[in-house]
Amino acid sequence: MLRRVSYILLSAAPQLIRFKKKLRLSYNFLNPFVKPSEKLRLADGSVVLIIGGGPAGSFFAINLLRKAKSSGIKIEVIIVEKKKVMNIQELNLNECQIGECNYCAGGLSAKVCEALKKLGLILPAKVIMDKVFIINIFADWKTISLDVLKEMNSVYRGSRPKGRTDSIYNFDSFLSESSVKEGAKIITSEVTGLEYSDDGRVVVSFRGNNKTIKSDFVAFAGGVNGFLGNRFYTGEKPLSYLQEMIPGFKPPRVRRTLIFELDTGENDKLMYKISGELYFILHGSHTLKLEMISIIPKGKYITVVLIGPAIDSSTNKDNLRIINEFMNLPHIKKLLPRRAEIKNLCVCSPNIVTGTAKNPYGDRIAVVGDMFTANLYKDGIGSAYEISAMLAEVAITRGIDKRSLRKGYRSVIRKYNINNTLGKLVFLFIRIFFRNSFFSRIIYQAVITERKTKTRENRRLEKILWNTASGEDIYKNIILSMYHPLAIWAIFSGGLLVTLRNYMTELIFGLRWGNFSRNTTGVGKEVFEINSKVIKEEFSGNLGEGSLDFERMYSIRMNAPGEKIFRELGKFGDKDRKYFKPRFIDVTRISGEANQPGCIIRYNIFPRQLSFSLRLLKSIPGEHLSYEIMNGFGRGGILFFKIEAFKKGTMVINDENLLSIYVGFNFPKNLFKYLFPAYIHDVLWNFSLCQLKEVVEN
Ligand SMILES: Cc1cc2nc3c(=O)[nH]c(=O)nc-3n(C[C@H](O)[C@H](O)[C@H](O)COP(=O)(O)OP(=O)(O)OC[C@H]3O[C@@H](n4cnc5c(N)ncnc54)[C@H](O)[C@@H]3O)c2cc1C
């Protein structure tokens, strides 16, 4: 009789649930042992089981154990991870098992690095594959490079590409180990089922044995890559058991990605070229439609992630074709080593989260990490940290019944729902602007104008780009700062107007951007101030009377030895030089030898009144050249070329140099400064330095 009643109740459960929702009743038919208003709490001796030992699982374990300890509750925390090899404490140095990867590019945002520090977790050096010093946002006109002033790292998650012989200790091993130190236990097995027991607790079963664990609370932190591809299959695990436990649970939307790893081999030059720099590119080509390309350095390896329509509609069979097509895109060829010089190590197509789950909680169960949600395209690990810290707080302070979890989680769900919708708008906006040559030139110019004129803290546009590329701020704030009147004004005045003026100047001086690459030469206000002070002190006797009427500085990265750049600078006054040849300006060495102190270079400018001469004062091969302004249009002043090793953080890059040019002038009459204004210097030098770079690099 009892069995009949329970059968009828169970088969009618879905209708009853809908009916219950209508009447706003809170009786749980699938777990009838829990009274509707019963407040469930973790207490001494409670067992918490976490499914999945990725970032969400480990962060949750650490936060929960600490919170419980500070609240005086003794709980047992068990993490169940399906990977067979966890690589904890280097106990197992075998080659990693294929399929034990955590399908992630392993970029640790500044937010995650700070969170780790806050938790007192010091990332061991062997886990860090690379430190990030520069984020490059690739735009059609020019790449915008942002200095990374906070700690950002790249790491491996789970197994590494097959064939690697170096340490396999990775970020996930480190987090698992940290949770063990905190008091968690780890079981390596796959959770295959969940059900409520008669006393309302959760019975967890595992693959391949009859063992079960009864727990007071279960957190599902198993991610969204149980199946690679771009779908969840209703009826398949883990979705089936999650939906049985939480009627109404709907997984987040996901999108197929393509991730692959390249090996630069033993070529140090290639390694240094990519090391320390992240690239974000927002377009592919007409045939390979991509929306987001991330290139993440890992020492001599490079991880590449592709997202976009070309990937959405692909299958595993297309992966190699897509990689080849990608490597042959003109803008990718400029960044990455040639296809022939690198090996493809591994490739797969995991899911990335783009939405938020519905009802990610029930009595004694909650979903955390990717299976709940993640920040759109950026900082998924940071989201896993944030959500798991929030769940730990709710579980200890509010309770583990559905109602308490809902109250605690409500704000996070709302935040991520709004955030990811707005995130799509941010990326759409950036994509439209950055893939178009004209628009991207305006944005680039606005960023550079701001960089030259404002201190770092006051640069709105740079901050917007940094927050978007690093995942540091929520998309709502990014949108608000994009539409701030001052940001729009900065784009109009420092971007549109300056671009039009520069474009006219290029036309007048006959500067046509040919087949050579366009590069940044604008220098930040703080860099300019430091350098200008040093140069002015050193050449105080050559600057003429009073303070300088006009000063400018430009810098460009060159992938060439200092001596080669120095030699090419010596051709400054030669007829056959391949740079600095604008219309109306003729630059000729009229006496002395190239790069020899005392040589004189004449600038014949139309109209003639603007002409002047330079005399080389000092020359240190491979390092610097300083010319003084002698006579004519300029009365006192200096033209200074400095070649120095390019640094990424403290890392000096072999054969990569930074060429900086400082120009300071005094004029006989103030009016002269308006006859040849500073922006003309900007346009001429920017164009000429890009030409010079092309010459020395090829
Ligand atoms: C291509 C790609 C690149 C990315 N790059 C970055 C990046 O550079 N930086 C960043 O911050 N984020 C990145 N992300 C997002 C990031 O990977 C996720 O947001 C993050 O891994 C979520 O952590 P998680 O713990 O929820 O899930 P996961 O990392 O997927 O961990 C889940 C764990 O649970 C285990 N598991 C699953 N099911 C079971 C089961 N039934 N029983 C036992 N164990 C189970 C799995 O083995 C796994 O170890 C990327 C995502 C993709 C797809």
The CATH architecture of the largest domain can be given as: 3-Layer(bba) Sandwich
Spatial order of the strands forming the largest sheet: 6-5-15-16-17-14-18
**Integer count of domains:** 5
The CATH class of the largest domain is: Alpha Beta
The profile of the biggest β sheet is: 7 strands, mixed
- Overall morphology: elongated
Question: Overall mean pLDDT score?
Answer: 88
Strand content: 15-25%
Count of discrete alpha- or pi-helical segments spanning 4 or more residues:
20
| Radius of gyration from CA coordinates | 31 Å
Helix share, percent: 25-40%
Class from secondary-structure proportions = alpha+beta
Low-confidence stretches: 16-27, 89-99
Instruction: State the total count of DSSP E strands.
Output: 28
Question: Any idea what the CATH superfamily of the largest domain is called?
Answer: FAD/NAD(P)-binding domain
List keywords for this structure.
20 helices; seven-stranded mixed β-sheet; elongated; seven-stranded antiparallel β-sheet; FAD/NAD(P)-binding domain; single chain; 698 residues; binds flavin-adenine dinucleotide; alpha+beta
Describe this structure in words.
The chain is α+β, with helices and mostly antiparallel strands and 698 residues long. The chain folds into 5 domains: 1-30, no CATH class; 40-106 and 164-252 and 359-419, FAD/NAD(P)-binding domain, CATH 3.50.50; 127-155 and 258-349; 436-508, no CATH class; 525-697, Alpha-D-Glucose-1,6-Bisphosphate, Chain A, domain 4, CATH 3.30.530.20. Strand 24 and strand 25 (612-620) form a beta hairpin. Helix 3 (55-70) packs parallel to helix 5 (171-182) and helix 13 crosses helix 16. The termini are far apart. The model is unreliable at 16-27 and 89-99 (pLDDT under 50). Flavin-adenine dinucleotide (FAD) is lined by residues 51-57, 80-83, 102-107, 190-191, 221-223, 225-226, 238, 257, 259, 305, 350-352, 369-370, 374, 379-382, 384.
